Amino acid sequence: MRVRLVLAAAALLTAAVAVAPLAHAGGADGHHTADRPTGSHLHDSNLRDSRFTDSHFTDGHFTDGLFVDAYGTVADDSTVTLSGTYRCLDDSAGPVFVSSTLVQGDRSTGIGGTRAVCDGHLHTWTNSSVAKDPAYVPGAARVEATLMQLSGTGLPLPRFLATEKADVELR
Questions:
Q1: Contact 114, 128 (CB under 8 A)
Q2: Which residue from 21, 25, 10 is spatially nearest to 158, judged by alpha carbons?
Q3: Which helix (H) or strand (E) holds 3?
Q4: Angstrom distances, CA of residue 123 to CA of 12, 21, 56
Q5: What residues contact 72, with CB distance under 8 A and at least 6 apart?
Q6: Cα–Cα distance measured from residue 140 to residue 119, given in angstroms and rounded to the nearest whole number
Q7: Residue 24 pLDDT exceeds 70
Q8: Which residues contact 34 (CB under 8 A, 6 or more apart)?
Q9: For residues 130 and 136, is the Cβ–Cβ distance under 8 A?
């Protein structure tokens, strides 16, 4: 199992570099998303987004969090796009990525990897990938998203900061 995790982390890192033009983390250019909540600095009064529960707070302070939007898209060319929101605090130990896996029926496919900006602000993530043979279809599906940090010398090892599993509707 540990070997599979290490291989998955290495594949994610490789995919993140290769998918960079297709995937974009809101705020990666230094601008912060302004859609939820406004003034999203690390102050308790600004962190009470309805999706952040008490489990996202320790001693009144925010911990890392990740959410998946209620729907994704499937384009005519079989490009799948998934999105959501995340917040992380510290990437000093190594790069942090938002990865996503789409499950529909008995099929499961990794859909991109986005480099996260860990500055304590709320950011959006969007992952896209062409998924053919067989292609995904509009309808019910499940997304498993992970906020993961790669750290260590040599082969980086994954450290999972947050995970989210959500039922979604593909349009």
A1: no
A2: 10
A3: helix 2-19
A4: 20, 18, 16
A5: 80, 81, 82, 83, 102, 141, 143, 168, 169, 170, 171
A6: 34
A7: no
A8: none
A9: no
DSSP secondary structure, 13-68, as one string: HHHHHHHTTT-EETTTTSPPP-SSSSS-SS-GGG---TT--GGGEETTEE--EEEE
Q: For 83-141, write each residue's pLDDT tens digit.
A: 999 999 999 999 999 999 999 999 999 999 999 999 999 999 999 999 988 889 999 99
Q: Is the pTM of this model over 0.70?
A: no
Count how many residues are written for the chain.
171
Which residue carries 């490009």 as its tokens?
79
Exposure string over 8-22, b if 16+ CB within 10 A, otherwise e: bbeebbebbeebeeb
Distance CA 99, CA 5 (A): 13
